[in-house]
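Figure 6 in text form: structure in, sequence out.
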């Protein structure tokens, strides 16, 4: 019923929060790994009452950005030139991977698009920065690679849209009022629990072909 990777991550984040939220500073392959980033994550800085300028300062102090202005912060988040969870830091590469999966018809676009758009609108409606909310954290990674899991996602097109809507909304609600700065994992897991009900409410008719308009009877 639940995405196994997210169940594992949820267990680890509750059991070993410090170990799983501490990242090493990215360096060249030829350089030794001797430095570590001990500042809070961008989402955590905002959660604790910080500003975008504080996020930019953390990037500058860590050597990830050359400026603290708003555009530089968004650029750092988009290209992924920062410390973060493996696989989720570069939004550009995640989107390119998702586009490839859509073109090859490996992935359906409805759940990830619905999740990202819902999170954007909900963040704006609740007075949060919607662009930062999409680029920071694991929202895009979760939408592209977790919400589209064949086994734990709904079967129908409408079900996928509702799934993405619910996951995006829950993610933003946790970020806004929850004690944890990120909510993507739990948003998707909660909607995983709703998947069987969505499949029953909006059933897929196997072998059914809708009659064409104007067809002779």
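Output sequence:
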């Amino acid at each position: 019923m639940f995405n196994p990777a997210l169940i594992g991550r949820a267990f680890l984040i509750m059991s070993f929060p410090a170990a799983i939220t501490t990242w090493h500073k990215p360096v060249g392959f030829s350089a030794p790994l001797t430095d570590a980033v001990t500042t809070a994550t961008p989402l955590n800085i905002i959660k604790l009452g910080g500003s975008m300028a504080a996020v930019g300062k953390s990037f500058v102090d860590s050597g990830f950005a050359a400026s603290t202005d708003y555009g530089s912060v968004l650029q750092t988040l988009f290209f992924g030139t920062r410390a973060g969870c493996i696989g989720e830091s570069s939004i550009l590469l995640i989107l390119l991977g998702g586009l490839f999966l859509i073109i090859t018809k490996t992935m359906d676009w409805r759940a990830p698009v619905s999740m990202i758009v819902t999170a954007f609108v909900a963040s704006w409606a609740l007075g949060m920065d919607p662009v930062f909310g999409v680029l920071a954290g694991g929202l895009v990674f979760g939408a592209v690679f977790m919400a589209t899991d064949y086994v734990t996602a709904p079967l129908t097109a409408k079900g996928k849209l509702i799934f993405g809507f619910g996951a995006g909304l829950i993610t933003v609600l946790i970020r806004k009022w929850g004690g944890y700065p990120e909510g993507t994992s739990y948003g998707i897991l909660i909607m995983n629990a709703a998947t069987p009900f969505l499949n029953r409410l909006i059933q897929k008719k196997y072998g059914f072909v809708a009659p064409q308009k104007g067809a002779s009877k």
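Caption detail: The CA atoms of residues 175 and 181 lie 5 Å apart.
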